[in-house]
Design brief:
32% of the residues lie in helices and 25% in strands. It contains 9 helices and 10 strands. It has a 5-stranded parallel β-sheet with strand order 2-1-3-4-5, with helices on both faces. The radius of gyration is 18 Å and the shape is globular. It folds into 2 domains: 5-114 and 243-256, NAD(P)-binding Rossmann-like Domain (Rossmann fold), CATH 3.40.50.720; 119-231, 2-Layer Sandwich (Dihydrodipicolinate Reductase, domain 2). One of its GO terms (molecular function) is aspartate dehydrogenase [NAD(P)+] activity. It comes from Amycolatopsis dendrobii.
Amino acid sequence: MVAVVKVGVVGAGSIGSVVAEALRDGQVPGAQLAGVVDPMLSPAGLPMCALPELLSASDLVVEAAGQRALADAGPQVLSAGCDLLVVSVGALAADGLLEKLLAAGPGAVHLSTGAIGGLDLLRSAALLGQFERVVIETTKKASSLVQPWMSEAEAEELRQASAPVELRRGPAREITAAFPKSANVAASVALAVRDWDVVEAAVIADPAAPLTSHVITAVGPAGEYRFEIRNKPSPRTPTSSQVVPFAVLSALEALATPRAVFR
């Protein structure tokens, strides 16, 4: 008999709640919901608990509560012997956090692909040699890109924008830190190509954008690549794409029921 993987979820927002409900309802073969931790939310129908209780009942924990939650709870999850599936990949832009997580075992670290694809090919190509140039340009609806560090005048100008405007372009670490809810994809690309310094990221605000787009171009020893992903925003949280929780569910299914799948 194949053992069932008991999955805990940290975060009950637009991502965590979808994941937890699918696990609760038996929609992920080989996995079942162990509990949910979220000090801010308590959605009806989900078994809420504290982190120590969750860790004692889980084999694997999904982090779906944001970058600070990953930094705070991630090491505890791993040192308790639970595997960790990271959703807030952008947190790994912080110097030393990935190394801290990897050293916190015995639990293993897994990264969700989130809102983009093509990472498997980029990882493969990186084994052949260092990329010469990698660029990711993210375009989102302007109103969803207002940030706490913006002045009120800047924020209002963005809300009232009538044409696309490039908000910021620079190294992946910088852009991921500036847009923590919108630029996890830049971190995912940098980790896939194994080089934070070679990845340039840009965030573009478009008041008329019906979809969130990510355009990735890369040039390296293995060839030249261009991927374009256009996702529907989450109806509950427009800063995230609707597909993100389902990327988590796909990852959970692959981890819970290993078989011949593309990984």
